[in-house]
Amino acid sequence: MKRKTFLHFVAALSSILILRAVPAFGAHPLFTDDTFTQGKGKTQVEMSYLYDSNNDDGSKTEISRPKVQLTYGLLDPLDVILEIPYLFVQQTQAGETTSNNGIGDITLSLKWRFYGEKEKGLQFAIKPSVTFPTGDEAKGLGFGREAYGITFISTFEREEWCVSANVGYLYNDYGLPSDRDAYRRDIWSASLSGQYEIFEKVWLVGEVGVLTNPNAASDTPLAFINGGLIYELTKNVDLDIGYRYGLTKPMFDYSISGAVTIRF
Q1: What would the pLDDT profile of 162-220 be if each residue is shown by its tens digit?
Q2: Is 94 exposed, middle or buried (0-12, 13-18, 19+ CB in 10 A)?
Q3: What is d(CA 67, CA 19) in angstroms, rounded to the nearest whole number?
Q4: Which helix (H) or strand (E) holds 13?
Q5: Smallest Cα–Cα separation from 185: which of 210, 148, 160?
Q6: CB 229 within 8 A of CB 241
Q7: Are 187 and 195 in contact (CB under 8 A)?
Q8: Domains by residue range for the chain, with CATH
Q9: Coil/strand/helix, residue 40
Q10: Which distant-in-sequence residues (6+ apart) come within 8 Å of 111 by Cβ?
Q11: Rounded to an integer, what distance in angstroms lies between the CA atom of residue 108 and that of residue 71?
Q12: Band of the pLDDT at 229, cuts 50, 70, 90?
């Protein structure tokens, strides 16, 4: 695989894993979204960092991704979400290192909890999203065209624990003709997560997920497990850390993430 094509692949793959549609990012460091919303007039700011590492046939790829996510409650059961990522992509092969960096594709989403009360019992939500081609696809930093996604979310909560399940779909037509030939346009995903308060203000989180391989030449899905901790520093400030491990070869070997979340 040529270096330029490989960089396009890993960038597209990384973006897919972060998009709200595939999977959908709930309480960081989880990728699985939950049905909880902010409430009318309330705001959440999440500043996160994700590091992906992969070794494949002597080639090492590393992607660092700081991101800002802004969430605002339009109504009690309805949030609008804006995600702004920045990408650092580096590949080392045969002792030679190449790198690109720049803003990635920006995603705008709505999350509507259409069944159940906030933080109580069984709930269902739907989350449509659109990803804008703000990243430079020629550098492997974006899709090159708008991508459209939708995620169906369910959450069941008790006082000390909750479980969430997601089923997501993403349609991406890509901007470069070579990418349209090489990668699938239809990406499906499914994930299941759990959260449990092991100590006061300390939550243990974990999940398992699978999604369609975007590489049209491979039928092996992308599968992963992810675990981490969330610490409630104050009522409105959370700190977290997570570690994700790839279960199939096309998936990144491992990823490390962390975030600060502020609500007001």
Answers
A1: 999 999 999 998 888 888 888 899 999 999 999 999 999 999 999 999 999 988 888 99
A2: exposed
A3: 12
A4: helix 3-18
A5: 148
A6: yes
A7: no
A8: 3-263 (2.40.160.40)
A9: coil
A10: 33, 35, 37, 78, 79, 81, 125, 126, 127, 153
A11: 10
A12: very high
SS3 per-residue string spanning 153-220: EEEEECCCEEEEEEEEEEEECCCCHHHHHHECCEEEEEEEEEEEEEECCEEEEEEEEEECCCECCCCC
Rounded distance between C-alpha atoms, residue 85 and residue 106, angstroms? 7
Distance of CA 172 to the CA centre of its chain: 16
pTM, 2 dp: 0.88
- How far is residue 10 from each of residues 16, 25, 179, 263, measured CA to CA in Å? 10, 19, 12, 33
In sequence order, the 6+-apart residues with CB closer than 8 A to the CB of 12 are 140, 143, 172, 174, 179, 183, 214
What letter represents residue 180's amino acid? Answer: R
Give tens-digit pLDDT for 129-151.
999 999 988 887 888 899 999 99
Helices first, then strands: H and E counts in the chain: 2, 13
